[in-house]
User: What shape does this take?
Amino acid sequence: MQAILIVDDSALARMMVKNIVSQAFPQWEIVEAGNAQDGLEKVKNQQIPIALIDFNMPGMNGVDLAAKLMELYPKISIHLVTANIQETMRLRADAMGIGFIKKPVTRDDIVRIIGGSDGGV
Assistant: This one.
C-alpha cells in the first residue's frame, strides 16, 4: 500500500488535501501531521513516497522538514504547499529539488503529483 504524508498546522487545509487524495486515490494510506515534529514521528520506520508540506508552521518550517525527510528518505517526492508564493520561496524549493504548489491546492495538483509517482491510477 502506498502512503502520503500531509503536514500542515491548519486542520482545514489538511482536511481539504485528505479529501482530494481519498477520493482520487482511495488505495493510498494518508498520514496526517499538524506540525513538522509530529510528521517526523509519524513516518518513523515507514516508507513514504510522497509528502505534501506546508511552509509556515510553528516550530520547524516546511523547508527544514523537507531537508530532514530527504536525509532520512532519499527517494521521497516532496512538495511544498504554501500560500507564500514569493519568487524567493519558489527558488528555494527548486534549489532543494522539491515541488512547489500554491494554496489553495486543487484536485488537479494532487492528481498530477500522485499520478506522476509510481502509485497513480
The radius of gyration is 13 Å.
